[in-house]
Amino acid sequence: MPQSVHPSAAVVIDVLRATTTIAWALHNGAEAIQAFADIEALQSAAAAWPADARLLVGERGGQKLEGFDLGNSPVTVGPETVAGKRLFMSTTNGTRALDRVRDVPLLMTAALPNREAVAQRLHQHKPDTLAIVGSGWEGSYSLEDSLAAGALVHRLLELDSAANAVANDEATAALALWKQWMHDPEACLRTATHGQRLIRIGDHDADFQCCAALDQLSTVPTQGEPGVLKAA
What we know:
six-stranded mixed beta sheet; 10 helices
C-alpha cells in the first residue's frame, strides 16, 4: 500500500498462515490476539500478562520459534489450548503487515475460512476507501494472498449490485486469479512458493485443508486497540 494512501478501512491477508490462525484462534475462544512485528517487544508485553492466561505464538521461515508455545498453524489453536488466553503473536509476514496499517480506523484480518464474514462486515460499514493488504513473503508477491484478496473482492462485488468495477490493476488481477482457482483453492495454495516451502519443511496437509476451506467461520478479527485483535 503506498505511503500516501490513507484508507478508512484495511483488511490484512496472510492465508499461509497467520490470518487463518488468527481467525480460528478467536473462533475457538482466545481472549485476543496481540500482534507484534518485533519479538523483543512481544516478550516484554507477554511478561506483563499473567502466565496462566497467555500463549506465545511465534514463527519465522515457516517454523515455530524456539521457546514459544505454538507456531503459526491453525490446527494447533483448538479450544482446549486457546480458550480464555491472550495470544502474543509474531510471524514472518502477517503480523508485520498488521503493524504497517495499525493506524487505519477500521482494521480487520481475512482468510478464506472467514471470507464471507469479512465481506458482510465491509458491506455493512461501507468504508469510503478500503485497502486489501496481502502480507506476501518477506516483501515479495504472494500467490495465495492474492487469491484470497480476489475471493474477497468477488464477494464484495456480488453483495453490491451497484458496483461494476474494481479500483486498480492489482485488484483486477486478484479477481481473475480467484476465478481461475475458485473451484480448487487448495491446489493454488500448494502451487504457491510458500506452499512449496511448507511442503519441503514437513507434513502440512491439515494446514492446507484448513487454510483452503472457504466460508467456514463467522469470526471477524478486528483491531480495538493498536495491535490487539478481538472477535467481532
